[in-house]
Design brief:
Elements: E1 6-11, E2 14-19, H1 30-44, E3 51-56, E4 61-63, H2 88-97, E5 102-106, E6 109-111, H3 113-120, E7 123-127, E8 131-133, H4 136-139, H5 146-155, H6 157-166, E9 169-171, H7 172-177, E10 183-185, H8 190-202, H9 206-220, H10 222-238, H11 241-251
Parallel strand pairs: 2-3, 3-5, 4-6, 5-7, 6-8, 7-10
Antiparallel strand pairs: 1-2, 8-9
């Protein structure tokens, strides 16, 4: 597959997937998601690869979720597939199902769908500039699967509800304190430290790592089924004026008025 929205490389047994849309804070459009799935499967089933780094380009953002400015629609080759027109369920499944550790390398904003990617990664290394948070209910959206239920397993029910209900932002050190981040390092050491972790992972038994990952996933895999139901409901919600108000308000640079559509 020819990549346009990501940069894929392999270094010393580690695959690196970089979302390459810094002009929109590495927000993803349908094509971006399809390319990420392809890259994850390429790396995940390559016996020469022991770990996968997921990150963004530029200093400002890891990923900020769906691109609200993208109006170009389908890009061909099935990019707009999936329950909500973007194959997020497939991407989340690929991250969990590939038998290699996926390590999020977070610099700058990890917001919305980007925060979900950091949550779903096996390990997360953050720079001191990293900022985590959710925006779904401010934008007329929500992640009804791993982004909510799995986050609660990591940070606890109360904190996960705070993430989604309040849409606050959290520093890298705050995220580490709640268990969302494994390590926080100076910004100029982020790539060096993440690759050091991956070199250690690459020295471990790949079969043992694969079994361990599947064992961890087995305990939370019921979320996949719940998420499928949730995304079906989300598709219906996206067609309502209430949901559309979030995107409209964002583009018009005003506060949303959700309640006038809530009846």
């Amino acid at each position: 597959m020819e990549y346009k929205d990501i940069i894929y490389s392999e270094e010393e047994g580690t695959a690196i997937i970089r979302i390459n849309r810094p002009e929109v804070y590495n927000a993803f459009r349908p094509r971006t998601v399809v390319e990420m799935i392809n890259a994850l499967l390429t790396a995940g089933w390559n016996d020469d690869i022991g770990s996968i780094i997921l990150t963004g380009t530029g200093p400002k953002a890891f990923c900020t979720g769906g691109d609200q400015s993208d109006k170009s629609g389908s890009y061909g080759d099935g990019e707009t597939r999936g329950t909500v027109g973007m194959p997020m369920e497939e991407l989340h499944t690929a991250m969990r199902d590939v038998p290699k550790p996926v390590v999020a390398m977070v610099r700058g904003y990890a917001i919305g769908g980007g925060n979900v990617l950091a949550t779903l990664s096996d390990l997360t290394i953050a720079s001191e500039t990293a900022v985590f948070g959710q925006v779904g209910p401010k934008m007329g959206s929500v992640d009804p699967g791993f982004g909510t239920a799995y986050l609660a397993r990591i940070v606890g029910e109360k904190k996960a509800r705070e993430f989604w209900y309040m849409c606050k932002r959290y520093t890298a050190h705050e995220a580490a304190a709640m268990g969302l981040v494994n390590a926080v390092v100076p910004d100029d050491k982020l790539e060096e430290e993440t690759k050091a972790w991956c070199r250690e992972l690459n020295q471990r038994s790949p079969t043992a790592i694969s079994i361990a990952k599947r064992s961890f996933n087995a305990d939370s895999d019921n979320i996949r089924g719940i998420g499928s139901l949730g995304f079906a409901a989300l598709k219906l919600y996206y067609h309502t004026d209430e949901s559309k108000e979030g995107g409209n308000a964002f583009r018009e640079r005003r506060d949303p008025e959700f309640r006038k559509y809530y009846k």
